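Late entry, alpha-L-rhamnopyranose complex.
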Amino acid sequence: MKKNVSLLVFLLLGIFVLTGSVFAKGFTIGMVVKNLGNPFMDACGKGGQEACELLGNTLIFQGPATPTVEGQIEIIENLIAQKVDAICVTANDFDALVPVLKKAMANNIKVVSFDSAVNPEGRIVHVNQADAEQIGKLQVQAIAEMIGYEGEIAILSAGATMTNQNTWIAYMKEELKDPKYAKMNLVTIVYGDDLRDKSYNEAMGLFKSYPNLKGIISPTTVGVSAAAKAITDAGLVGKIKLTGLGLPSEMAEWIHNGACEAMFLWNPIDLGYLAAYVAGLLCDGTITGKEGEQFSAGRMGDYTITKAGDGGTEVLLGPPFRFDRSNIDEWKNVY
Ligand code: RAM
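Prediction complete; structure with ligand written out below:
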């Protein structure tokens, strides 16, 4: 009998050692997005759900009604109280979430930022959609070609404190210093807060305030589709050019009617998948978020954790992709 019990203990121990993470599965991951009602964020949630199902984890998808820091803090406080195992957050502000995220980490919750980074003090690792410098510069190059390197341009951004848009805009300004853009003038940056109506009204406001405006860059999926609609409604297709970061599903119509000749994005489903996958691996101890660590992320293949521009560490999803009339129909039903 004693022998049988020891055999059983031995066998169980063997299974534990061999499978390891099997016993560590079943983590709960809270995904906190900038706000609800943004199809880009819904696509991130879809990918997050897929990764969680694969790893045997559970995803809680949440976001404030409007993209505020206060709303995100309240949600994160609740997730801490619920004792989730990890939080994936796309930050409405680089610094303001740090105290609540530090509290989460002190409660052994693994914090991953994705899409819009939080200060490295408030996270373990960031999942970056694409190289920020490339994202910023590509949009300037695109609008320059569309307007023949001459005339006034404006930027219609999301929220004034959002890390991702602010970083891309900094690189746009740097690109604009190149002498080849000497005849182009960035006249203003306006903020639509990733709200459809506000973005639309800001675009309409630009047409009034800058009658010589030649182009708009909108580095937000909400902003670029609202700007395209505004250009169309105001009868300015062909007169004011537009580029930015858009969802193919929302932009196909505007690419076909000529309001936006070309725009860029990455796959938000993959971004959410990777963020939730990384969170799962932090929970089961496969990775700790340090530079140089390597891991496999299911259908997305192998990744290495690298140093981020902000001093923390990150995982880079891949390069941005250009959409125009030649390929938009292949993607419009995907995301
Ligand atoms: C909006 C959000 C998101 C950004 C995309 C491009 O949906 O601001 O954070 O990454 O646009």
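The longest helix spans residues 2-19. Will revisit in the morning.
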